[in-house]
Design brief:
InterPro entries: Cell_wall_metabolism_enzyme, Dup_hybrid_motif, M23ase_b-sheet_dom. The protein has 338 residues and is an all-beta fold. The chain folds into 2 domains: 106 residues, Immunoglobulin-like (Sandwich), CATH 2.60.40; 220 residues, Distorted Sandwich (Glucose Permease (Domain IIA)).
Amino acid sequence: MPTPVVIEGSRQLSYELHLTNFTSEPLSPVSVEVLDEKDRVLASFSGTALTSRLAQGGGAAGATIAPGMRGLIYLELALPTDAPPQALSHRIKYRTADSGPFVVEGGIVSINQAAPLVLGAPLRGGPWAAIHSPDWPRGHRRVLYTVDGRARIPGRFAIDWVKLDDSGRTANGDADVVGNAYGYGAEVLAVADAVVAATRDDIPESTTVAAHPKHAIGDATGNYVALDLGDGRYAFYEHLKPGSLRVKPGQRVKRGNIIAALGFTGDSTGPHLHFHVADANSPLGAEGVPFVFERFEVLGSYRDIGELGSKPWLPRAPSQTSRRDDEMPASNVIVRFE
């Protein structure tokens, strides 16, 4: 059941629509409309806006769903504030090679009306780049993992945190040297009063980014800490520095306690903290759930994340509120924590 989360003052919903082709011929989705209980169209996707969101089995992109195959459409939309919907339905138009378009209606999904978790800061100070985007083909939002025969998206709301200087650089000197990264060794904090659910601290760390080896999927998290937040919610901190963990399973921690240090272990392109919340104590075998931070300050953002490390970010517009309360950071914004 999808849960809305506030981003830059707007209630946003992220979920997936599964389309299975039970016919004997290929089906090409032409358009998808998202409707509320009063049949108001809340969002509509067609053309490249639709095909760019459609993935086939194995994660391959494509505009046609073969017989017996399933397509997955990644949807994000802003919810109206005047009359928030309780449930959504969908109107999907298809076409085939030999016939004109036809419409299928259904896919009813209830909206979780409960507020998402409100968390404290996972790190101190800043500037920190909150790296995530729902439209990256291989971003956390669109990567499924199959564990115990079930496909899940653990990183649906994951954020990779990279520390910068005021010029947007990620390292002091040679960025290939892991220890030069501004965020390397930064204290990682408990986001809530919690119980340590799991830890791992046996994965070594290379001294340079270039020497970083490939890792098996079971080692992708690197060294990590999982906190049991209660009510079936778990916070995951990944790619931690070897030997830096200060906690062990079963230990109780208070919000703001130092639990480890930011490092460069596991499947990582550079020193950063991967953070997400999920519904089970499994880094890959759980569904990612939304969360918000109690407070942070927005300094600016990157329109092109490829400029990270080489160019300054775009400063916050004067009309944009810098202080954010009970929100999730928007894609690729630069924030400062108290």
